[in-house]
């Protein structure tokens, strides 16, 4: 998976971020709200890949791990890091929102500042990315900075004045000297603790589903029950990949049990069906040494159906025949019995 698509995921605030099979990431998703709401002014959710590992808010001013307070002495550092980073975020987001409100003359109502901040690390322990990004009222990018270990990328946003040289220097310094080391350290710690979850490999199950729709068939390729979320799945027509734009679906979705699923569907017209194409669903996943394949030859279905109905007719015939035999036998049995009784009777009367 390219770095760009990772950014797109992150940028859309979708809290499922895992750069690829060879890396892990830690993200803080922070929200600062001004105005009257039932929510705390400031909240942070901490995600390790796609697993929520922490929470912090301005009411309790202490980070909790998976909903539990950490009292262990060894974890003091974690609590301190949390208090430092989240306390700092709280202040800077508060200031930022104050400036924005002033700038846009927004004295009334609820205003929201969101921030995503975090890092990504390769499996070899090397940092791969550190970034943060602000969004005002969930629509406008305020400012953002990314560093992928070779290049800085900035997005100053269009809301407030851009970065001046001094300001930029301070931000870069904070990012590199404070946030990156803390983030990588925390990522390693969480990874160790959560390895049974985030490092597990669950292979996909694969199905090719044919459904009759108006005008033909819908052929769906479905992979489900897999972890991690990265999967390559393609539908092949006679061994050639079907173009993505012919397919619908294609979004990896959580199944709700900690695994993922992916569906891609293709409409096949009745005309097309007659060409007897061979459709194959093929998937590769980190958990698999070889590709998984399921095939279907369209049109062959008809043959199967007629074979099946012929079998059914034969089976039905057999059942009817058996019933007939049974009934006949029972009937003839009673007749035999009657006859033998009569014979007995007659023999009795004879004696
Ligand atoms: C801000 O709002 C106040 C009162 O609603 C108004 O008097 C003032 O002109 C506004 N300023 C700007 C810059 O829009
Ligand atoms: C970092 O980003 C720059 C610019 O987008 C790109 O040219 C470079 O290849 C990236 N480096 C890595 C290690 O991904
Ligand atoms: C369809 O193609 C796959 C691979 O391309 C092959 O393994 C399979 O035997 C083919 N099925 C039919 C019915 O031709
Ligand atoms: C998916 O395909 C890409 C490009 O061919 C490859 O780099 C990546 O490792 C594959 N991922 C999986 C999970 O097989």
Give the strand content: 25-35%
- State Rg: 33 Å
Number of strands: 17
Order of helices and strands: HEEEEHEEEEHHEEEEEEEHEEH
Domain count: the total is 2
The CATH class name of the largest domain reads Alpha Beta
Write down the CATH topology of the largest domain. Answer: Murine Class I Major Histocompatibility Complex, H2-DB, Chain A, domain 1
Biggest pleated sheet:
8 strands, antiparallel
Q: List ligands, each type once.
A: 2-acetamido-2-deoxy-beta-D-glucopyranose
* Uncertain spans: 1-19, 302-307, 337-351
The average pLDDT value, as a whole number, equals: 81
Q: Which homologous superfamily in CATH is the superfamily of the largest domain?
A: MHC class I-like antigen recognition-like
Q: Give the fraction of residues assigned to helices.
A: 25-40%
How does CATH name the architecture of the largest domain?
A: 2-Layer Sandwich
Q: What is the molecular shape?
A: elongated
Biggest sheet strand order reads 4-3-2-1-5-6-7-8
How many helices in DSSP terms?
Answer: 6
Q: What's the end-to-end separation, in Å?
A: 101 Å
Structural class: alpha+beta
Q: What would you call the quaternary organization?
A: single chain
Concise structural overview:
The protein has 351 residues and is of the alpha+beta class. Helices cover 36% and strands 34% of the residues.
């Amino acid at each position: 998976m390219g770095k760009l698509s990772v950014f797109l995921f992150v940028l859309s605030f979708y809290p499922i971020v895992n750069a690829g099979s060879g890396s892990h990431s830690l993200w803080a998703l922070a929200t600062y709200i001004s105005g009257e709401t039932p929510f705390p002014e400031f909240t942070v959710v901490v995600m390790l890949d796609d697993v929520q590992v922490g929470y912090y808010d301005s009411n309790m001013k202490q980070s909790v791990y998976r909903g539990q307070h950490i009292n262990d002495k060894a974890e003091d550092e974690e609590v301190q890091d949390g208090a430092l980073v989240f306390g700092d975020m709280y202040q800077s987001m508060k200031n930022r929102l104050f400036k924005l409100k002033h700038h846009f003359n927004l004295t009334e109502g609820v205003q929201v500042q969101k921030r995503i901040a975090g890092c990504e690390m390769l499996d070899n322990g090397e940092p791969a990315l550190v970034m943060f990004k602000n969004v005002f009222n969930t629509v406008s990018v305020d400012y953002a900075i990314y560093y992928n270990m070779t290049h800085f990328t900035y997005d100053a946003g269009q809301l407030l004045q851009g970065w001046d040289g001094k300001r930029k220097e301070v931000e870069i310094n904070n990012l590199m000297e404070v946030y990156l080391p803390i983030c990588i350290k925390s990522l390693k710690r969480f990874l160790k603790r959560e390895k049974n979850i985030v490092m597990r490999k669950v292979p996909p199950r694969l199905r090719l589903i044919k459904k009759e729709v108006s005008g033909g068939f819908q052929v769906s390729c479905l992979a489900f029950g897999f972890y991690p979320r990265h999967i390559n799945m393609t539908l092949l027509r006679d061994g050639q990949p079907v173009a993505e734009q012919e397919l619908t679906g294609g979004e990896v979705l959580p199944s709700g049990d900690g695994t993922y699923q992916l569906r891609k569907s293709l409409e096949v017209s009745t005309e097309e069906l007659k060409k007897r194409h061979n459709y194959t669903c093929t998937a590769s996943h980190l958990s698999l040494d070889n590709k998984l394949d399921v095939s279907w030859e369209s049109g062959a279905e008809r043959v199967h159906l007629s074979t099946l109905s012929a079998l059914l007719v034969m089976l039905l015939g057999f059942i009817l025949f058996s019933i007939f035999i049974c009934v006949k036998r029972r009937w003839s049995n009673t007749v035999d019995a009657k006859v033998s009784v009569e014979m007995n009777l007659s023999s009795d009367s004879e004696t």
